[in-house]
Amino acid sequence: MQLGLTVVLLVFGVTAVVGLVGYLIDRSAARNDRREGR
Amino acid sequence: MNLNLAHLHLLINHFPTIGFIVGLGLFVFALIGRSDELKRASLVIFVGIALMTIPTYMSGSAAQEMICMVPQKAPNAPCANPGVSREVIETHRDAALLALVFMEITGAAAWLGLWQFRRSSRPSNVTLLTVLLLSIVTLALVSNAANLGGPIRHPEILSDPDAADATQPAGAQPAVAQTATGVRLGLDSGGLGKFILSVPWMWPVCETLHFIGLSLLLGVVLLVDLRMLGVMRNVSFATLHRLLPWGILGFGVNVLTGMMFFIAAPEQYTQNGAFHWKIAFVLIAGANALYFTMFDETWTLGPGDDAPLTAKFAAVSALFLWVAVMYCGSMLPFLGNAF
Questions:
Q1: A22 to chain B nearest CA, in Å?
Q2: What part of A 1-38 touches B (C-beta under 8 Å)?
């Protein structure tokens, strides 16, 4: 049980970090697209 | 003479150092001369060298096994060849691992710079400054790793190992120097490997993240490549181009978790034919990704436009390459000898 919980928490944690990085890059791209009228 | 991975390591181990010197020199000139073309060229070199460093490190592990053949039951025993120092080899390996980590981070930052070049004609100053700082640190680390590896010789690949000593003039260095010359700065890959194998949650976490990274990568690859082949024709390429960082993030997760597997049990991979093919396909697919990141002919594709023949070829080859990567990865225990 403890093993399963550790795996789930770590997987979600790393996935959340990856998602946050992706979101930040995309947000800056969106801002740039608006500025260039795309 | 039978070619093996020790030969490959000796062949490609200068690429990271020399390539990075060329890339960094070009990048500094580009920043001083404010040349966007040179900036793009140096960023491509950084990405290419970051990819090339992966097989350089892996073939180094294979070379270590060949030069210092020890039964797996006694991993810390002295090397079978008395002229080979285990300590020198492990110091070189640990320094190379640290250099590899920085190399991959620099490659990712350089790729982001290329992507921003395409989206907005020039990358942000923050990205360029990050690449500059990272590349300086990486060059120092990779040069140190190369320096530490310099004294290592491979008597086992000579047809007559005794001839190596016979050809040395009196008073010259022995075939294998016993001391490492350089800063002993590195990541303890032996300790890291033991940690990955001994902690019960480590392997399943890496395995799950490897699949999540693959899904992210393949999702983006499919969207981009199917658009090139005529599916979703009303979507412009500029729209899909915005998704590319997600694919690269997936690739980054897979490089990280894949390296964890490799460091934990290198002997499962170095002698595995399916793994050799997998890495070869990953390198070609990585180069293929650069085409969609920065080339003009795809960028100009608007809604309803048909992709040019070159883009279709790149799309078909990308689909083939990533399926081949997945196939070789799944077949590691069946075609090779892993697990």
A1: 6
A2: 3, 6-7, 10-11, 14-15, 18, 21-22, 25-26, 28-30, 32-33, 36, 38
Q: Check CB contact under 8 Å for A11 and B246.
A: no
DSSP line for B236-259? -HHHHHTTHHHHHHHHHHHHHHHH
Spans of all domains in chain A: 1-31
Lowest mean pLDDT among B27-31, B54-58, B291-295: B291-295
What is the model's pTM?
0.88
- Position B42 scores a pLDDT of 95
B211 CB contacts (<8 Å, ≥6 apart)? Answer: none
Chain centroid to Cα B118, Å, comes to 24
Q: Side chain identity at B338, as an amino acid letter?
A: A
Kindly provide the ipTM of the predicted complex, given to two decimals: 0.89
Q: In whole angstroms, what is the distance from residue B157 CA to residue B135 CA? A: 34
| Candidates B208, B215, B243, B254, partner chain A, best to mutate (most A CBs within 10 A) | B208
- Average model confidence (pLDDT) across chain B: 86
